UniProtKB/TrEMBL annotation:
The keyword NAD applies. It comes from the Bacteria. This is UDP-glucose 6-dehydrogenase. Its EC number is 1.1.1.22. SUPFAM superfamilies: 6-phosphogluconate dehydrogenase C-terminal domain-like, NAD(P)-binding Rossmann-fold domains, UDP-glucose/GDP-mannose dehydrogenase C-terminal domain. Belongs to the UDP-glucose/GDP-mannose dehydrogenase family. Keywords: NAD, Oxidoreductase. It catalyses: UDP-alpha-D-glucose + 2 NAD(+) + H2O = UDP-alpha-D-glucuronate + 2 NADH + 3 H(+). One of its GO terms (molecular function) is oxidoreductase activity. Residues 320-428 form the UDP-glucose/GDP-mannose dehydrogenase C-terminal domain. The lineage of its organism: Bacteria, Pseudomonadati, Pseudomonadota, Gammaproteobacteria, Natronospirales.
Length: 447
């Protein structure tokens, strides 16, 4: 069976490369011609551990190819993964324009019985829409080719995407078709030595499972951030609370780290889309509304803390910022809390020097050019160079090199020894004993 993966973002490219790595013949399709050219040359367009080595190896061995033409892929493929973006539309719903466009193209071009897999995160009912679009395109051609549209949502984490894909906790296959179940079961058996990690269910159930998973994780984060803000007011150190509750196996330690909010391409848009789905059903998603609201507030917490310490007008102040990516291990800056912090600092008159181990190219591409041209924002290659003459360091993303920094060097280079720790990376007592003024999230000693 030959596989086409349409869309080569964080999900599509990892999916294509990992299937090729297991010996499958894969052709990746993307409408971005410049990106396709780079990938054909073996260049990896995103930062993801393990991926840069996999591309040239699989291209050389003839298992992985790239094209801008879905029609070309359709000449030889029998499985089509749709892995294009589903960014939020203005009303918060998932924008399915790209998914629908790919479905139409598949219907216009398939040559043989095909399994069409929705891997993009799509609202419940999208499988039916994709099926109708493919059928309509086939009818227009006057062809009747057998096909199944199934749901196979992706659960990989950026920053560990290859590892997650290679060793999935679970693979969700949403279809009632025995044919599709057999084909997909065989395909994924290479990744799940134990086939009990493959969970079969209905297509709509699978679509909902993806949203429920992300909404649950976002809820855990927002819940903990709420407890952190309350802890600040009560003189409680939320880090002790986190240890205390995480040790309960019913709660666990995952996703209960207080911080400056969740970002990325998934949680914010998926919570919004689920809220939209609920409203369409005349259902009040009270918990999801609160999760989203709390996260928007949380992204402003560092700004409030900076304002409380330095005032509303930051003219003449200079800040160092560590961490631009929305989380460690990726160069992705979509919905990153760093953007909210930078907007506030620069909008209030400050200058900023920032560092990130991987997201600086992305920052140059995504942040307003005017910030760089006016000298309000500078990026530096070495983390300590960001600190020179800074009134404060603001830590936004918990990359490993920031975890145990050289505090002596920091003290020498900064103008004022002030740290705003948006990810509770440092021990307040230790930093204070070294002469730093320390503010974390929910550490019980500050507003
Ligand atoms: N990023 C993640 O961590 C993650 C995890 C799980 C699920 N998802 C879901 O997977 C989907 C893809 O996410 P992503 O982060 O990989 O997206 P992305 O924005 O990084 O990549 C999408 C790619 O699709 C291409 N594309 C768009 N329209 C196309 C078309 N008509 N034909 C061919 N190519 C087209 C774009 O050029 C781009 O390269 C989304 O629905 C997302 O919610 C993402």
């Amino acid at each position: 069976m030959k596989i086409a993966v349409v869309g080569t973002g964080y999900v599509g490219l990892v999916t294509g490369a990992c299937f090729a790595e297991m010996g499958n013949d894969v052709i990746c399709v993307d409408k971005d011609a410049a990106k396709v050219e780079r990938m054909r040359a073996g260049e990896c367009p995103i930062y993801e551990i393990g991926l840069p080595e996999m591309l040239p190896r699989n291209i050389e061995e003839g298992r992985l190819a790239f094209t801008t033409s879905l029609a070309e892929a359709a000449e030889s493929c029998d499985i089509f993964f749709i892995a294009v973006g589903t960014n939020p539309a203005a009303d918060g719903s998932a924008d399915l324009t790209a998914v629908h466009a790919v479905a139409r193209e598949i219907g216009e071009t398939i040559q043989r019985p095909a399994i069409i897999v929705d891997k993009s995160t799509v609202p419940v009912g999208t499988g039916e829409e994709v099926e109708a679009i493919v059928r309509e395109a086939l009818e227009k051609r006057g062809d009747s080719i057998e096909f199944e549209v199934i749901s196979n949502p992706e659960f990989l984490k950026e920053g560990a995407a290859v590892q997650d894909f290679m060793k999935p906790d679970r693979v969700i296959i949403g279809t009632d078709s025995e044919w599709a179940r057999k084909v997909m079961g065989d395909l994924y058996s290479a990744f799940t030595h134990k086939t009990d990690r493959i969970i079969f269910m209905g297509r709509r159930d699978a679509e909902m499972t993806k949203y429920a998973a992300n909404a649950m994780l976002a809820t855990k984060i927002s819940f903990m951030n709420e407890i952190a803000s309350l802890s600040e007011r009560l003189g409680v150190d939320v880090e002790n609370v986190r240890h205390g509750i995480g040790s309960d196996p019913r709660i666990g330690y995952s996703f209960i780290y207080p911080g400056c909010g969740y970002g990325g391409s998934c949680f914010p848009k998926d919570v919004k889309a689920l809220i939209h789905t609920a409203r369409e059903q005349d259902f009040d998603p009270a918990i999801l509304d609160a999760v989203e609201w709390r996260n928007a507030e949380q992204k402003k917490r560092l700004n409030e803390k900076v304002r409380a310490r330095f005032g509303a007008d930051l003219s003449g102040h200079h800040f160092a910022l560590w961490g631009l990516a929305f989380k460690p291990g990726t160069d992705d800056m979509r919905e990153a809390p760093s953007k909210v912090v930078l907007e506030h600092l620069i909008g209030s008159g400050a200058t900023v020097t920032a560092h990130d181990p991987e997201a600086m190219d992305m920052a140059r591409a995504e942040l307003p050019a005017e910030w760089f041209e006016s000298g309000r924002l500078r990026l530096v290659e070495h983390q300590y160079d960001a600190l020179d003459k800074a009134d404060a360091l603001i830590l936004v993303t918990e990359w490993k090199p920031y975890r145990q920094p050289d505090f002596d060097q920091m003290a020498r280079r900064m103008k004022q020894k002030v740290i705003f720790d948006g990810r509770n990376q440092y021990d307040p007592e230790r930093t204070e004993s070294l002469g730093f003024e320390y503010t974390g999230i929910g550490r019980g000693r500050e507003f």
